[in-house]
Amino acid sequence: MIRHPSTMQHPGADADPAGAPASAAGLAAWPDRTNPKVRQLLEAAHALFLDQPYDTVSTDAIVKEAKVSKATLYAYFPSKEALFAALVSDKCGQTAQAIWESASASDDVEEVLRTIAQNFMAMFATGDALAFYRSIIAQVPRFPELGRIFYESGPKVLQERIESFLRDASERGDMAIPDPKLAAMQFLQLISVDVPLIGLLGLEPLTKQRADIAIESGVALFMAGYGARPRTR
Predict the structure, then answer these.
(1) What domains are defined for the chain?
(2) Is 126 left (phi over 0), alpha (psi -120 to 50) or beta?
(3) What is the pLDDT of residues 17-52, one digit of tens each?
């Protein structure tokens, strides 16, 4: 039976009950994202930031969309920047979990990798995901901490789960991987090719055919390079 890694905490970072890093944008800790008011604020902010540039979204608009008072907003978030940072952490964490979750049900290494690849590529076929990604990148130059929050809440979480999965598979003899961390990064690059860049630039929509070709060739190359070799007598 394959042992799948459970929810992972970033090394050296404290986490709240929802799994977010403990300090960013002037917050001593993220508010509990299971709190209904916090969820209202996060979802309202997400809808507005998808529809409008960051600078044009006001706290007045956010509280109106969330149907809460401004006092409620500031009870949980000291600023719009802090709310946006929490939103980035929340959405990136959800995405990483969604990419991994359905894949972890299988016991077949190649099938797990293929499912991860399919889930990963599906993200780049979603207009909302790309729009939010663009809004994050646009704010990083003046809010450098946001880049770390994005990376540690999403890409790093997914990479570490794949790394742990590959390490376990290698220890069982199902794969031959000397450096699981490097292999996890290589896997994500093999399956995604230029899709993230093309999607981010809005050059062309991702078709199922193009995604399938990238996934199958990427998984095949990865298995050819790291699949366990038959033992010789």
Answers:
(1) 33-78 (1.10.10.60), 88-226 (1.10.357.10)
(2) beta
(3) 333 333 444 443 678 888 999 999 999 999 999 989
